[in-house]
Every structure is written in C-alpha cells, then in structure tokens.
Amino acid sequence: MKTNLPEKTEQKTKITLGKENYKFIILGCVIVVLGFILMSGGGTDNPNEFNEEELFSFRRITLAPFFVILGYVIVLYGVMKRPKVNREAVEQVNE
C-alpha cells in the first residue's frame, strides 16, 4: 500500500534575532566572563595568612561586579532589541 507523501515544499523560516542582536549577545557574554576573571584570585596557600589589601581591592569589590552587571545588561539589550526589518521583504510576504 503506497502513501501519497506531499512533495517537498519550501518553508520560509523567520529568524527571530538578527545578526546585530547576536553581536550584542556575544559582546555581553565576553564582558561577563571578563568580570568574573577580574573577580577571581586573592587566595593564599597558607590558610593562616590573610591579605586584606589583595582580597578587598577596588578591582574585586567594585570594578569586576560592574563589568558583570554591564555584561548582563548588554545581553538583555541584545535579546530585547528588535532587528531591522527590510520593508520590501515584508511587502513580499504580505502579498
């Protein structure tokens, strides 16, 4: 018994995010990783030793969290930003 399979039809998929959106998302992720790298370190091999200057430095307490939050904001902007729409393509789809 043979089944009539429909021929391959061209399906146009709509890409939700544009190229510019992905650039913002990747940039934001790189900035988040940079923030975590700046935040790392400060430990010592000897547990009886405590270096307050190194652990509570400006880089780890202020700068690194700023980079992490900035990176998350850029990623959020990249996700929420509407991609530019080509008006000719929209008119062709509507016809």
Task: Summarize, please.
By secondary structure, the protein is mostly helical. Helix content is 59%, strand content 0%.
SSE topology sketch:
Layout lengths: L18 H21 L12 H4 L2 H23 L6 H8 L1
Strand content: under 5%
Taking the sheet with the most strands, its summary is: none
Quaternary form = single chain
Which term fits the overall shape? Answer: elongated
How many domain units? 1
Rg value: 25 Å
Mean pLDDT: 83
Helical run tally: 4
Succession of helices and strands: HHHH
Helical proportion, percent range:
55-70%
Low-confidence stretches: none
Describe the structure.
The protein has helices at residues 19-39, 52-55, 58-80, 87-94. The longest helix is centred in the last third of the chain and has 23 residues, at 58-80. It has one domain. By secondary structure, it is mainly α. Helix content is 59%, strand content 0%. It contains four helices and no strands.
Task: Label this structure with key terms.
95 residues; mainly alpha
